[in-house]
Amino acid sequence: MTVERIADDLRDLGVEAGDTLLVHSSLSALGWVAVGPSAVVDALLAVVTPGGTLVMPTHSTQYSDPTGWRNPPVPDDWVGRIRAERPPYRPAVTPTRGMGAIPECFRSYPDAVRSRHPTYSFAALGADAESVVGDHAYDHGLGEGSPLARVYDRDGTVLMLGTGHDTNTSFHLAEHRADREGTVSTHEAPVVGPDGDRKTVTYEQLDYDSSDFADVGRDFEADRPDAVTEGTVGTAASTLVSQRDLVDYGAAWFEENRE
Asked: Structurally, how many domains does the chain consist of?
């Protein structure tokens, strides 16, 4: 797979110039990609063109509460030292965790802009990059003050490139919009402030639950086949869908199906 072949497959799938495109990806699903993740990023940028905006989640869950870590868990007597001594979150430096090779590569592109949230950051590049990721609210990092909501405002499109709905972050925005009670917890993480000094930010966060995202996605595709475009990019089974449709459907689904 070369840049040109990947770009051709993306266009055949329905990705267009000028799109605001939120991408979830698996490099290994694409087949043998010449050079690696940068070829995929270059192809995506070529297809959306400078008039569009490419967006990817660049989460860094190493800044979550260490008491909740399971992969691997840490001893209780490590927690205080981890909190006190881990380096601050820095958008240009901090690596992603569990996001895959493509977003990790994308965040390092010279013109990419990464948001300030220590756990749930997004990176964007293109015409509306600053508007999408700027002023990312600390409270409820996947809610109304997040890049997810800014993609929704721009009638953006979600591309699942060899991935499934189980990792579809737009359903977290749907969790916020569902008319149901949710549990909120308080978190803190070190960041670098405007003056360059280390500071600790404290923020509230909905206790997100992705355990039923695959079920939501399955029902969405069954109920709204007109809203789903499926195809392959390389060897990766890929899906292109309106983010607004996903979020609106997900909010209604959570209201009906979650206790």
From this structure: 1
- For the chain, the farthest-separated pair of C-alpha atoms sits apart, in whole angstroms, at 54
Q: Tell me the C-alpha to C-alpha distance, in Å, between residue 256 and each of 167, 207, 217, 227.
A: 21, 19, 15, 21
Provide, rounded to the nearest whole percent, the portion of the chain with pLDDT above 90. 95
How many beta carbons lie within 10 A of that of residue 185, not counting itself? 11
Cβ partners under 8 Å of residue 85, min gap 6? none
**Residue 230, Cα to own-chain centre: how many angstroms?**
20
What tens digit of pLDDT does each residue of 162-175 get? 999 999 999 999 99
Residue 119 tokens, joined: 């756990």
**CA-based nearest residue to 41, from 28, 32, 30, 54:** 54
Q: Tell me the residue range of the domain where 120 lies.
A: 3-257
Main-chain dihedrals φ then ψ at residue 198, nearest 5 degrees: -70, 135
- How, if at all, do strands 20-25 and 53-57 pair? parallel
